[in-house]
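PT: before anyone asks, these are the final sequences, not the draft ones from last week. 639 residues across everything. Please model them as a single complex and drop the result in this thread when it's through.
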Amino acid sequence: MNRAVLQVLLAGVAAVALGAAPPAGEEHFFEVRARKFEYEPHVLRVNRGDRVRIRLLSEDVAHGLYVDGYDLNVVANPGEDGSLTFTADRTGRFIFRCSVTCGEFHPYMIGHLKVEPNTPFFTYAALLLVLGAGILAITAVRRRREA
Amino acid sequence: MSESSPTQEQAAAPEPAKEKERLFGLLDLDARFDLTRFRLIRALLKSRWMPLALILFNTFMFMIILVATLLGGFSAGNYNFGIMLVWILWWVLLMFVLVPVFARAWCLMCPFPIFSDWFQRRRLINIGEEPKKPWGLNRRWPKWLKNMWLMNVLFLVTTFFSGFLTVRPFATFVLLGSVILAAFIVGLVYEKRSFCLYLCPVSGFQGLYSQFAAAEIRRKDDAICKAHKKKTCFIGNEQGHGCPWLLMPFKFEKNTYCGMCLECFKTCPHDNMAFNLRPFGADLLVDTKLESKGLDEAWKAFIMLGIAVVFYLGFQGPWGFMKDMIRGTTLPGFLSYIAFHTVFCLAVIPGVFLAFCWLSKLASGNREVPLKKVFTGFAYTLIPLGLGVWVAFSFGIILPNGSYLLHIASDPFSWGWNLFGTANFPWTPVLTGYLPHLQGIAMLLFYLFSVDYGTKLARRIYPEPAQAKRGFVPILAALTAVTFLFLWLYMG
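LR: through. Structure below.
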């Protein structure tokens, strides 16, 4: 009887632990088409721990794709694709940008890699709300004291 | 801005009583540290070569920029000396250091007015005897235009063309050439630095944000100024010119229109001018008869926020259709962008802010205070936040693109030079992985300044402390919402 209870408890703990752990990484494949001065798709969404494969195709001139934060770079020429594979182990929104001067708007050729959960954004947003609420609370306390 | 000529009445007007206040409850807002207490700095500020030496250096650089942008023509701007120096280095220095710390320090060294100054004064360096009548028509700027409205419009219009200016060398050549030509022509017709005061597109936002700056030029001792009947700081003497910015150095309280030309250090016979370091944002509370808070400055604050949103969407966002609109791929697209940009900056943002101000008045329970006073007063809370938005935006400019500067320094005209051995330095983004964090920290930091000054402004807008506290709640919500919006744009 006791052994059965123990087994159930252990199974429960294991289930909770497995639930809290990051899900096993899935594999995502993106075919990113680059043309002056945009990427399509321009937002890539994955989860932390996912395996990401990017195939970069250029539709006009040579383009690059450099991922901020991951420090990864790939180049594609027309008719000559580039490929990039990595594990999305850092959460947040990362800009990927063209790394080959492709024309006058080249510095603004940008896309977004979103690795969920976007912990940095939620952290700063939570901090903002805490600060705002804190200031409200201080104001209320002071008002009560003055009253 | 009020009438600039000093009168007996204005000079004798009593100072408004100042409430002792502290930034974040810690730093006395009246605290000042006068840098002229150091002999070397004092001598430097009184020298006729300061700021002339800096202006001459920048004039030299400006000439190189003009040549580089002309030669660059329609090529990609990221390897052009002019584009990189103006839109990367200058802009970032302006937003990171010059404006937030040193107020209008750029105006101090700006080369644009050098030719009109030279013409009007008939000399470049020495003073000798001040000419009785400067060359040129020397007309007074129309009183109804003595404000920021023209600069607001001109700056907004300039930003319509940012999709060309920041990437096409020839477009930058046309802009800079037009500005220096306009500065000269206006100098032929209107007195002193009328162009800088009321027309220069980049003067307005510097004036607005310099209210937040940690530096100021002010008189040291009121009593000395009052006893000194001959206002040499305003009319000039053999040591220096009368204030080219048409300010009364013996009187003014705000950085907004002080171009930091340092002439008052030279013309004051009592060494009564100070170059102070001070707590950030001290000017945001100033509201005197001579330098009252106005809708022109409020709209400048709205416009700067609006431009930041539009620039983010167009330049730092991932949406290709926005880039096509901004760079004028099609005329309807470009016109739609201009229409959206204009309406968003001039009407949508002020409209939303007005709604929050109306809620503020409602929450305060005070029916007597005019909504215009609430609107204008609280608009100044957007100055620190707006500056924070631009600091954050500028991180997104310098970190990915800064390495181009090494290339163009070695080969400014794209003639194959390698002056410093860095002409072949590859494009290297620096710390771009930390970009969201830097932007987030900047937003939160400047949000705190906005909130702190918001509480102080509320006490000036509403007569009763309880009303001020209630009335500030909707403004706090507005500031929080704006900060959240930019956090979302930069990181979300």
